Amino acid sequence: IVLVSKNASRDQPLYARLWGNGFLPSQHQGVQFRSGKDPVLFLNNPEGYDGTDRKEMLDYLGQLNNLQNEVWGDAEVDARMSQYELAFRMQTSVPDVMDTSNESDEVFDLYGPDSREKGTFAANCLLARKLLEKDVRFVQLYHQGWDHHGSLPQGMKQQCKQTDQASAALIMDLKRRGMLDDTLVIWGGEFGRTAYSQGKLEKDNYGRDHHPRCFTMWMAGAGVKPGMTYGQTDDFSYNIVKNPVHVHDFHATLLHIMGINHEQLIYKYQGRRFRLTDVSGKVINDILV
What we know:
Blueprint lengths: L1 E3 L27 E2 L17 H22 L2 H24 L6 H7 L9 H13 L6 E3 L9 H25 L7 E4 L4 E2 L16 E2 L6 E4 L10 E2 L6 E3 L4 H11 L8 E4 L2 E4 L14
Parallel strand pairs: 1-2, 1-3
Antiparallel strand pairs: 4-7, 5-6, 8-9, 10-11
């Protein structure tokens, strides 16, 4: 499930391919929940259909797909059938999970004032907890607006105001409900920013450029040691000088926490065997409990 903050800066676009399935079967495609009247497009029954009619139609579609699958043996047919079944189940579960009217004032206060406004990062953090309570396996929150090539002082204050309290609240809420032990929370982006200024160094207007050589992520919850840092940069925050972690290592560690051997997670596509961790990823055991 993908949740996108509605009140964040739009300095960089978000494309559905970011949560797409790539060359994997379409059953691995992410689903974006919207903050408007219909959280998931085309989820409601067509006009004139009730739940019984819809179920009969899906049963007939399933029979047709099974006939096609017997002839072609195509994994995409199985994926299509799974999507139909998932959509039918979501028709009853989505309205319930999106309803926050039964949450207490204490919960809203914990996540911050923005949590009462649907589609904000704070509201999405609260919604993420509700989705996890419904056994959703993967929830991704996108919050744009971090591309501060300029106006960093003002922009950073605004970003932190929108995300800081709600991020901490999510972890606290999961912990007190006994959910943090089997939930891994990850906060990060796709690259770092330079330690030196970009543009004119003015009191209220300066920025930071892209810096892929090193960047920071934090994790909390299942399988991760609390209260520690791993890795170190030089005095200029330019290069890594101790305990570097490649993205493949990071993925290997995440898979290990989920009980998956990353060296055996292989998918064959167009004659080539692919691994998420390529051939060099390794588990970073020092950060694990």
